Amino acid sequence: MAKEKILLISDIDGTLVTPKMGMPAQNVAAAARLKAAGHYFTIATGRSYKAAMQYAREVDINAPVITFNGAALYDYSANKFIMTKEMPETVVGIVRSIYSRFAEAGIEVHTEDDIYMIRNTALTKRHIEQENLTYINASVDDIAGISWLKVLLTAPPEVMPELESYAASLNIPELDFVRSGIPYFEILSHGVNKGTALPRLIEYLGIRPENVYAIGDYYNDVGMLKAAAHTAAPAGAPDDIKALCEYITCPVESGAVADYIDRILDSI
């Protein structure tokens, strides 16, 4: 195994970076050590490829990224999508109903290259500002005929449980709903997650599944953590996420990814 390439894939928010500190310098240095040893390092995120680009450059990834929580694979070196999973038309009606039923819910529709703002709230404004994104104001009807990759919903804490309960009651088999952060709730095509995108990335890189390592901290990382052969979570992750993993690293602020990389390099 020592002579074979491995892949380490990391979640961004809450794993590779923190909102207040950004990316710990330890993570950049450790990623460089992993790549210098001849291995792959990349990221898996709910963000679009545009929003993930700053971190991809900062840590200098050397493999395609999983974006939109698994709805796409993007290769920065080739400036192209390797894979996309478009949403079924059913989602249009669901978003219409959420728009009508939940006046406090912010609604963003993400396509390959653009974000369409259906309803802008304080939480969606914060999301846009934090990730330095641009968007296009639109109604659901304006974009009903184009290809969607995911829908991002935001809601205040007192509204989120009702929104989640409503989504669960819909029983739409072709769509999945997932929490991707404290104020974030996403709609994806059924079966789309970071883990279902991972086999396509493995095939693209030509590595063996048993040489795949993953680290993540939240519920949208579950598919990836279940699909990877070796797994880790930062110390601050929820207990049920940590229970899925072989190794618990130091807190994210101290360089959780660097901690895991050092363990990997020591083991191989």
Descriptive report:
This protein is 33% helix and 23% strand. The protein is globular and about 55 Å long. The longest helix is centred in the N-terminal third of the chain and has 12 residues. It folds into 2 domains: 154 residues, Rossmann fold, CATH 3.40.50; 100 residues, Hypothetical Protein, Haloacid Dehalogenase-like Hydrolase, Chain: A, domain 2 (2-Layer Sandwich), CATH 3.30.1240. The protein has 9 helices and 14 strands. It has a 6-stranded mixed sheet, with helices on both faces. Strands 2-1-12-13-14 form a 5-stranded parallel sheet. It has 268 residues and is of the alpha/beta class. The mean pLDDT is 95.
How does the major sheet shape up? 6 strands, mixed
Gap from first CA to last CA: 7 Å
Strand order of the largest sheet: 8-7-6-9-11-10
What ranges have pLDDT less than 50 throughout 5 or more consecutive residues? none
CATH overall fold name of the largest domain: Rossmann fold
Percent helix among the residues? 25-40%
The H/E string reads EHEHEEEHEEHEEHEEHEHEHEH
Overall tally of structural domains: 2
Structural topology:
Layout: E1 7-11, H1 25-36, E2 40-44, H2 49-59, E3 65-67, E4 72-75, E5 80-84, H3 90-101, E6 106-110, E7 115-119, H4 122-130, E8 136-137, E9 150-154, H5 160-170, E10 175-181, E11 184-189, H6 194-205, E12 212-215, H7 222-227, E13 230-233, H8 239-242, E14 247-248, H9 256-267
